[in-house]
Amino acid sequence: MNRHLFHKDGRPVAIGDEVTSFRDEKYIVTGWEKTGRNRVYVKAVGDKYEAEFFVSVFDLSWDQPA
To answer: Reduced to 3 states, what is the DSSP secondary structure of residue 24?
Structure first.
């Protein structure tokens, strides 16, 4: 199953997009697992270390599986 991730406004998420956490912290999307594991990989703006969060931290959502 290959799922797609979307911003709250309906735009598809792309690597390099800036997202804001519920704590108003800015991150850059570096990837996500397309298997539905419900995680997005990001790094803080200006940081080189990657972190992993639930997509809900950034108010992102998955499309419905076909």
So the answer is: coil
Q: Would you list the DSSP string of 14-58?
A: -TT-EEE-TTS-EEEEEEE-TTS--EEEEEETT---EEEEEGGGG
Q: How confident is the model at residue 66 (pLDDT cuts 50, 70, 90)?
A: very low
Q: Which amino acid is at 61?
A: S
Query: What is this structure's pTM?
Result: 0.84
- Give per-residue pLDDT as tens, 22-47: 999 999 999 988 766 789 999 998 88
Bridge partners for 32 per DSSP: 40
* Distance of alpha carbon 62 from alpha carbon 55, whole angstroms: 9
